[in-house]
Amino acid sequence: MYGSEGPLDHAHMSRHGASGRLLPVPRSGTVPTRRGEPLHPPAASRQYPAAVGKLQWLLVAWAAVLGANAVPAFAPPATAILAVFRVTRALPLWPLTIGGAAAGALGRAILGTLSRHAAPRLRSRDRENAAALGAWLKRRPRLRPLLIFVYSAGPFPTNALFVTVGIGGLPLLSTSLIYFLARCLAGSLWVWTIGNAVETSSSPLSLLTDWPVLGASAAGVAGLVAVFAFPWARWLGYEEPPKAPRRR
Questions:
Q1: 38 Cα distance to chain centroid
Q2: 69, 88, 111, 241: least surrounded by Cβ within 10 Å?
Q3: What is the pLDDT of residue 155?
């Protein structure tokens, strides 16, 4: 291509334009237009994909918590799952933990419902022991919400609690709501504490295989064994006395 004073190369055109007039030099890393204006989108549009990406990862984190809380055993704690997503994806704390509490409550409600439907297929002794724990809670309507709140806010696995609630015939909706409130408050503190500890680790994903998480999974299994294997019906006085033999 030729100008008034000879051929124009591409570098000359990008600096002077097709007419040879001096145009402003765009910022580094941008592509000039005809008028020398950068082709970068506005700041709001640049932030939009980042916000969508965080929302997608929040949905993934909540789905992982829901799945982990819907199974009776061998799943990592919800706090560990949320802490890993917070560190690896830089997710905001309160949306992560409040949504995680809602997903966890839904997962536990599913576990309680499945336990209620599976109760007739259990051995009669196992079913009676779990039902005795549920009956003990049912007879304490004033104390029950506080016990469920304190237990749900602590570091203990709640799978055995919801299995007991399901088999014992306790209301799942109110129990799940209490669990949600407890995890919104205490769960946020647990996720924040664990997340700060994980940030100093070279591999945050290793948290899911560390001994505290494996110990919590083992405690969940032990809790289920305790619900069914221990003679709660006899200890709590809900066992029917043996019938006297009939005289012939």
A1: 42
A2: 241
A3: 87
For residue 213, the enclosing domain spans 74-235
| Predicted model pTM | 0.75
Mean pLDDT value across residues 73-101: 93
Q: Is residue 79 part of a domain?
A: yes
Q: How is residue 46 written in tokens?
A: 């640049």
How does pLDDT run across 200-243, given as a tens digit for each residue?
555 666 677 778 788 888 999 999 999 999 999 889 887 654 44
How many angstroms separate the CA atoms of 82 and 239, rounded? 42
> Is 126 a domain residue?
yes
User: Which residue is it, tokens 């560390």?
Assistant: 210
- Number of structural domains (the chain) is 1
Residue 88 falls inside a structural domain: yes
- Degrees (nearest 5) of the Cα angle 135, 138, 139? 90
Is 29 domain-assigned? no
Distance of alpha carbon 194 from alpha carbon 178, whole angstroms: 23
Dihedral sign of CA atoms 142, 143, 148, 153 in order: positive
SS3 state at 3 = strand
